[in-house]
Amino acid sequence: MNDARTRSDAGADTTTAGWDASQRGPVRRYKGHGSGPGKAVRCVACFPRSVAGQMIPLKYGVVIALCEDHRDPAFVHSRGGRDFLAALSTLFESLGLRGARYRKAAQAFVADVLAMGTPTARHRPGSYAWPDQRRTAEAVWAKGGSYHDGETVVLAAFTPPVPAIRPPSSHTIRRWWRDRRWLTPRPAPPPRRPSPNLTDRRPITRLDRSERHPRLAASGIPRPEPPPRGRR
Q: Is there a domain that residue 151 lies in?
């Protein structure tokens, strides 16, 4: 039995990523079967196989579970994202999720994947106050960790040895996770052209000190005369 199970697992690993459109339904997980940790969420694209996945945040508050192969941008990018978009839209409709936000979330995700090679319109800040912590959390998420794994790593840097430093809020860390730069990064635009050196080239004139301030002239205080200059 163990040999048969080993052969079936080996045959499953050789298959390439694809969306099986022949069978639909809830993901079934049996004891002793499947791939990945048993308590992990199951990939929606691997049905009827049971493969551990990662929760991927989409826009409009939609979150789906995808395995390492099906969340790979190369797979989503294949055929212009049409297969991924059609299968995900069908899945949402089958589950009764017919709201417009589910369709828009899938379309926005595919659009982000297709735009990965193009630079952004402007420079996007990483994090003004916690750039190192954000890069650490994104590295955890890029390796397949959950949102809570990244949050734990960020908060571990603000343990009691440094109580005076304020850690980022959970809303900030969740925003880093929802931005999804760890899955769909985009290059930065070219550097801006440096501003020209503005030099005042107007002729420098001597200040006219013949007039006094009106308040000083009305005060009656005599104006001190400059000392006479010696002849050359």
A: yes
